[in-house]
Design goal:
Elements lengths: L2 H5 L1 E7 L2 E7 L5 H7 L18 E5 L11 H7 L10 E3 L13 E4 L4
Parallel strand pairs: 1-5
Antiparallel strand pairs: 1-2, 3-4, 3-5
Bound molecules: FE2/S2 (inorganic) cluster (FES).
Family: Belongs to the adrenodoxin/putidaredoxin family.
Protein name: 2Fe-2S iron-sulfur cluster-binding protein
Pfam families: Fer2 (PF00111)
Length: about 110
């Protein structure tokens, strides 16, 4: 692992403030690292997978989010009118890995 990989991965992020590249800490959840970077993403339940307010779209070429979500995560996301089967995730359920360097993370609209 290189020093750059150890310190994090630069990911394209989109929220109400616009699109920018944000460095996310490897091994943490996408939710906590986005919050550390002042990205406007909700977390009413504090990362306990019960509120759905941390809804993001993860756009990663060749990756269908439906294949990696747990049934519980999908059930919570399906309650959202902004649910997109192929790219919706709960940011509190996604670990930051080097693979996210090729991703674009979009904060889903509020309900
Ligand atoms: S923070 Fe509540 S479901 Fe992720």
């Amino acid at each position: 692992m290189t020093n750059e990989e150890q310190s994090g991965v630069a990911v394209l992020v989109v929220d109400d403030a616009g699109e920018r590249r944000v460095r996310l800490a490897l091994g943490d959840t996408v939710l906590t690292t986005l919050q550390d970077a002042n990205v406007a993403v909700g977390s009413v339940c504090g990362g306990n997978m019960s509120c759905g307010t941390c809804h993001v779209y993860i756009e990663l070429p060749g990756v269908d989010c439906e294949r990696v979500r747990s049934p519980e995560e999908t059930a919570l996301l399906e309650d959202s009118r902004h649910f997109r089967r192929d790219r919706s995730r709960l940011a509190c359920q996604v670990e930051v890995t080097a693979a996210l360097a090729a991703a674009r993370i979009v904060v889903a609209p509020d309900e």
